[in-house]
């Protein structure tokens, strides 16, 4: 028995345009044509269509489905297992994202509310990139330190934020002065500023041992959004992010063994 494009479209739940696309791509060509030249699908064609729709539902791209059907060397089971792993990873990612959304809801419901004027008064030019905050939350979702930092931040009052940002502003001014004066990143002044930054994090958010501080500083040079939380773009200088990163690494080395050796290449030039 043969079926027209319209009939297949109706009971398979796909559009006629999709069936035409599958035909053009060589993925599913009808086995026959009517005397008038219209496409006619056989029972075997419908079985193939069912397989295609199954793979599509699992998120396989068309070129990969085509390879599965055309290449006898392709192992469909291995492809399915690989896709299963990807789906499990995606499920885990979505769960973490749901946790981030839940935390954001909690912050909105119980956190400190600031008017635009108060926000500028407290934070000045420092802005919080939502995409970066979300990625950071997901990246460190399983970290006890991240959970503690978020809990501390949620509990801060307006006055806490004012004092915190006042300290950060003073520290930033000193960092810019040290950099502009040409002090070496592994010199006493730069390392002392790095230590002050580490203690600032510990005082206001969560314990920040030197290894953690190094990881935070590495983000300064790999993600401009991270360094913008420390120095607003309008106040940044070329090479400043790498300078701050090197100072943090030097300070961490100083704490580790009394020396100042560090991996410069991690912070760039």
Question: What does this 3D model show about the protein?
Answer:
- The chain is mainly alpha-helical and 269 residues long.
- It has helices at 5-12, 16-24, 43-57, 62-70, 76-110, 116-123, 130-139, 144-155, 158-180, 188-204, 210-222, 224-228, 240-257, and strands spanning 3-4, 32-33, 39-41.
What labels would you give this structure?
269 residues, 3% strand, mainly alpha, Globin-like, single chain, Multidrug-efflux Transporter Regulator, Chain: A, Domain 2
Summarize the structure.
The protein is mostly helical. The chain has 13 helices and three strands. The protein has helices spanning 5-12, 16-24, 43-57, 62-70, 76-110, 116-123, 130-139, 144-155, 158-180, 188-204, 210-222, 224-228, 240-257; strands at residues 3-4, 32-33, 39-41.
The description of the largest β-sheet is:
3 strands, antiparallel
User: Strands of the biggest beta sheet: in what spatial order?
Assistant: 1-3-2
- The third-level CATH topology of the largest domain is Globin-like
- Helix percentage: 55-70%
Organism: Streptomyces alfalfae
Protein name: Transcriptional regulator
Keywords: Activator, Coiled coil, DNA-binding, Transcription, Transcription regulation
Could you outline the blueprint of secondary structure elements for this entry?
Blueprint: E1 3-4, H1 5-12, H2 16-24, E2 32-33, E3 39-41, H3 43-57, H4 62-70, H5 76-110, H6 116-123, H7 130-139, H8 144-155, H9 158-180, H10 188-204, H11 210-222, H12 224-228, H13 240-257
Antiparallel strand pairs: 1-3, 2-3
Helix pairs in contact: 9-10, 10-13, 11-13
